[in-house]
Write a structure and sequence with these properties.
It contains three helices and ten strands. With 144 residues, the protein is an alpha+beta fold. The strands form two sheets. An eight-stranded mixed sheet has the order 2-3-4-1-5-8-7-6. Strands 9-10 form a two-stranded antiparallel sheet. The protein starts with 6 loop residues before the first strand and ends in a 5-residue tail after the last strand. Pfam families: Glyoxalase (PF00903).
């Protein structure tokens, strides 16, 4: 796995309140799905997303005793095959697969692992996310 951070996802209780707050600060959303998630570019090729707490926990496999702080780190890769390979690499290195690679309803392919301290990493193939030479992120809506 390359040492790179693509997306930081923070769990929030109310996406609309969060969206309005950051827009009032002058941030422009790359993508906003009311009640679900909002994405903002925060640096060269880096995205900060705010995802509804309960949906983040369910998607990342954090249920019951596997409770989590409402944050994940994301690493985007070129293909679903790469997602699965990195999940297995993380498990072999001492991590745990929290959610296996799965075709997502929004059109991508994603899985999660936890490191030895419990931090969750999403490994994701998102064909709608691209970064140009200047580091500008484009998030396209995918057909599910």
């Amino acid at each position: 796995m390359l040492p790179q951070l693509s997306v930081v996802t923070l769990g929030v209780s109310d996406v609309e309140v969060t969206y309005a707050f950051y827009c009032r600060l002058g941030w422009n959303a790359l993508q906003y799905v009311p009640g679900e998630v909002v994405f903002f570019q925060v640096g060269h090729g880096i995205v900060l997303s705010f995802f509804r707490n309960d949906h983040l926990a369910a998607e990342s496999g954090a249920t019951g005793s596997a409770a989590m702080a409402p944050v994940t780190l994301a690493h985007n890769v070129e293909s679903p095959k790469d997602v699965d390979a990195i999940l297995h690499e993380a498990a072999a290195a001492g991590g745990s697969i929290a959610a296996p690679g799965t075709q997502m309803s929004w059109g991508g392919y994603s899985g999660y692992f936890t490191d030895p301290d419990g931090f969750r990493w999403e490994i994701c193939h998102n064909p709608g996310l691209s970064v140009d030479a200047e580091g500008n992120v484009t998030l396209s809506v995918l057909e599910s």
